[in-house]
Request: fold
Amino acid sequence: MIEVKGVSKIFTRDGKSFEALRDVSFDVDTGRFISLIGPSGCGKTTLLKMMAGLVKPTEGVIAIEGKEVTGSGQDRALVFQNFVLLPWADVLTNAAFGLEARGVPKKEREEIARAHLDRVGLGGFEKNYPHELSGGMQQRVGIARALAVDPDTLLMDEPFGSLDAITRHVMQHDLLRLWQETATKTTVFVTHSMEEAVLLSDQVVVMDTRPGRVSQVVDVPFPRPRDQDLSDSADYLEFTAELSHKLEQMQRMDMARSVDDRFDRDD
Amino acid sequence: MAEIDTRVESRGEVQTSPRRGLSSLLDPPRLVGAAALIVGFLAWELYARSLENNIFFPTVGSMFEGLVALVQDPDFWAAYRLTLVPFLWGWVTSMVAGVVIGLIAGLNKTVWRLISPYVSFFHALPVSVLVPVMVVAFGIGLLASSSIVFLFGFFEVLLSTVVGVSYISDDVRDMTRSFGMGRVRAFRRVVLPGAMPAIMAGLRIGTGRAVVGMVVMELLLVSVGVGRLIIRYRALFQADLLYALVVTLAIFGLLALAGMRRLENYVLRWRGDA
Reply:
């Protein structure tokens, strides 16, 4: 279980402080897939980075399986929005990077990495370099790299955010299948897209801005295994439309507030 | 600098890569470059012939004759040998020190803050003005001459390396940290290769600067090498040999840069042809 307890974060830069998160609390049960969604600036990526141990909360605690997160750990793996592959290393070396970080011997880590590349559909591309691959394929390497270390917790930061719509759709369904095959990994998935969040998650944590906070935690009622049939169903479309509408309103409110802020400052 | 570099690149490859054969010599960009050279030589030749006497300004033909004479003169090779000793010392030490100190300063902000005023000072200063200072400090021997070459190359390499290390993105740092890679392994597997494009560019530009430093050293110090020949030919009004000698220096510089370019392409071969 991931426990987020009273987490606040204040960034200070050039003497100005910015409240990224205020008193955020929620739990994620082990083995569940949850999405963090909200307008830009709601602190969802910051929250994810805290779970990864890359950012420290100003106040509050994040604990995973009862242990407070104080730094990065072998139990977690991150997938990045812009893939963050090493351009000078081939696909196999990139996929094996997490294992290399942990000191797994070359032969063993390459064997494991190869197996995971096969799983994400990149068998045969081991010797290619990242710049020779499309964005979707690069992110498959990113996912293989994360899965290769066999993490208990998978943290994904808008992994499909920089892909085109069609690739994105394919990747969502492939991830859905992949995750349901693995099924034991607690996953936290940051996204902008409500369709994506609902399709993939057991639970959607809707966040709001200024300061970043949890607005609503929604359980997704659709049973697994899910597939294309779900994303075509009327129930899904209706459910998603309603939540999307709510999210859109939040975004509009946020814009209105930022306009107010500007006028306040001008006065 | 970029302009000079591209010219050096294409000409350097013509000189050093016969493996590509004749067809690459016939590439349109190379043909244009070759045509420009021929036009330049023609203009030079016509101007030189229009002069009543060309003691001070040789024709292209006599310059090439001078070149042939030079390469057959043991004195010429002896002069280069003498010049290359301080060059090699200064060049190698500046490259090594530049990369090593650059890596340390790139990784450690405190070190960078400590050295950056000196780096800015020396990088902004035309290094030639330090020649008298070097002479006062070290005399006119090997130490002084290699120090001059060193100073020309060092700061370029240092700055490039620091920039290379600091341009490794936050995302890559986060990624490395998130997988819990240790510092030593991360240095070898992430920092060094990440900074390598900038380091190689620094080495190439630094090599060019070191060649300039070599010529400056030859002209401004009491020289026993190429500089001595330059002074002799000037004194004896042997303009053809003087020009030929200048051309050999240019060829030397081009070869050095072409070699560095090849090394760069080899080290960064993961970039492919892109």
